[in-house]
Amino acid sequence: MTDGRQLGSQDSDGHYSDSDLELDLRWWAAANYLTVAQIYLQDNALLREPLRPEHIKPRLLGHWGTSPGLSMIYALLNRLIRRTDTDCLYVTGPGHGGPALVAATYLEGTYSEVYPGVSRDAAGIHRLCRQFSTPGGIPSHVSVQTPGSIHEGGELGYALAHAAGAAFDHPNLLVACVIGDGEAETGPLSGSWKLPAFLNPERDGAVLPILHVNGAKIAGPTVYGRSSDADVEAFLGGQGWAPTVVSGDDPRQVFPALHRALTDAHTAISDLQREARAGRRSAAKWPAIVLRTPKGWTGPRTVDGVLVEGTHRAHQVPLSGVRTDEAHLRQLEEWMRSYGPDALFDSFGALVPDLERLAPQGDKRMGSSPYANGGRLRADLPVPPLEKYALAIEKPGTTHHETTRVLGELLRDLYAATTTPDGGGYFRLFCPDETSSNRLGAVFEVTDRCWQLPVTDYDDGLSARGRVMEVLSEHLCEGWLEGYLLSGRHGLFASYEAFAMVSVSMLVQHTKWLQHAVDLPWRAPVASLNVLLTSTCWRNDHNGFSHQGPGMIDAVIPLAPDVVRIWLPPDSNTLLSISDHCLRSTDHVNLIVVDKQPHLQYLTLAEAHAHCAGGASVWAWAGTEAPAGADPDVVLAAAGDVPTQEILAAAQLLREHTPELVTRVVNVVDLMGLLTPTEHPHGFDARMFLDLFTADTDVVFAFHGYSRAVHELIHGRPAPDRFHVRGFSEQGTTTTPFDMVVLNRMSRYHLVLEALRRTRREPSGAGELADFCLRQLERHGEYVVAHLEDMPEVRDWTWS
């Protein structure tokens, strides 16, 4: 073992005796046995009779290679918890080692408490094995069904970010985060090593990264597996960590070495936190462990004369022909009996008492930790009354305001209301380097940006006690927030719309987690994942085509309808109403899309509440139909702030130039309401849909995102072909606001021309209005090139 830092000396309480080692090796054998049994066996789970082909599952699924290392770490963390009474959360980046974590939580007793049918006896072990990776059973990864888990680990790269989020504002928590050396090759994990720049020992818990270097991925070697200890230590040291390397293939040497490393890491963390909480900032680095053990440790050394242990061949199922190959079957039985199951489980199939006593008690068990079931810790968020922030609206569409600025003021007061005396709290804003840019800068009136590195006289709003999390990585913002929420806190992720796509697969994985969590009564509800998309595709005045992309809407629409919500507030007061709802909600993913630039404001707060509660409404003041009149000649609909302005400007042109034309103006704020109620719980019922859009009138729909999204949503509604959607069509550049809508054929003039094409009848003045719109489009093209700004009648337009 090499040591990359000065560690505190081992105290007497941390002594690791020969008897301790023997007990841990036996517990480890039990965990390894149950791991193999879950992968292979559907019957004869305790090998109380010779192994036969019919005892083997017809489909062999699961991952053996990483599992022995995960189980060893679990065993030694259990010993650390019992000795120090530490609250420990176990995050496993190699989540495909699911059978190891299921086995560990079963051995400690948590699994049977959560799932009484999987009892602590032979019948329970039979069920444990039969359910693993089988229809009607449990997935093979460390999924939401696994007690103690906040991290599924299927898509690699997010373990350390999730661990960090769980540690923020949980001062008494130690998060042991196992990082696979394959996972360590991903971009998100590479960025996650920067955590020491943001983790405050004064008010946060600790993250102990354990880089598990077993040398191989599914089909080849890993970078860290073929790198020297010195190079790995140098890299981690440069990121703010003090690594210790533990390596070997003899369990009797590795167990004591890892025990020492964990004990010393705990001592160093305690010293660092104690100094910080006494007001003495330390230059000490956070400890980390690099653990080198063979992949597939204690499994078959060779299979059919080919080396397996320590290679990529141990990654999944090292013996695959056991149902048809007698030699493989005998090798599997020898492998499993090498763990001595008869000495680990008694005649009833229960774990023998001296091993059962190795588990911590109650919620100190990692499978039972409330930090892994964060809804147990969640406190209600004290959202202030919205009247304090609401804009006064005398007439709709006559005043401009930066739409998101009111949200910044609300978030400021949320910070103030949720900050605890020790400088911690239970609400945080996560954002790339854009909080002020996104007009949320009011939060800096009560807190700073979190920063643990040196601060100069020229910095703005940086401090160690700051609690606004700004890091130029959408992956980290999303991952930190997910870990923060799953461990019982509240938060918001704000990002430029186009670049939130960087982290969209993380949001998809979180949605899948929540989708299954709701079916588990033992999982308490957690605060919703709230994502604010601003600096949108329509308003990137000094940025170009790279910043213009509304694709996250399309990515979210197909996800679990019980989880996802998409909100398109047209103004500040609707944003306040929606934000109030989203911040109070649980177990949802809320996508809020609204621009940060000055926009026209339309609704009073009371009107906004009613509008948001309905999900959509007819804006009678903008149309020309009588309240109790017949169906309109054409429906003008919008979803989104810029589309709302353009559809209103189109409605005004139609009113002025074709006054006999009967129009209805509809605004949609809850996009998923366009789905039918059978497809989404927010779907507008048939009566409401007809009240908004009629049964057969053509609808000209201005939409914030790609047109196809609306067409997808209204499938199954009456005569969906009558909806003519204009939205973003991948046309963009650095240009004026109005030129963006012209380029994408969603301008007021394009909408008027579309309405005149689709109306039930041709009103007088229609030809002249069409000619006017075409001339205006031609004039616009010339004007912006000559004057570098939009035409005055567009730039200064308000509703009248």
UniProtKB/TrEMBL annotation:
| PROSITE patterns linked to this entry | PHOSPHOKETOLASE_1, PHOSPHOKETOLASE_2
Residue ranges of the Xylulose 5-phosphate/Fructose 6-phosphate phosphoketolase N-terminal domain?
Answer: 24-376
Query: What's a Pfam family in this record?
Result: XFP_C
Q: Which cofactor does it need?
A: thiamine diphosphate
Keyword list, A-Z:
Lyase, Thiamine pyrophosphate
Residues of the Xylulose 5-phosphate/Fructose 6-phosphate phosphoketolase C-terminal domain: 596-799
Name-wise, this protein is Phosphoketolase family protein
This protein's species is: Rhodococcus jostii
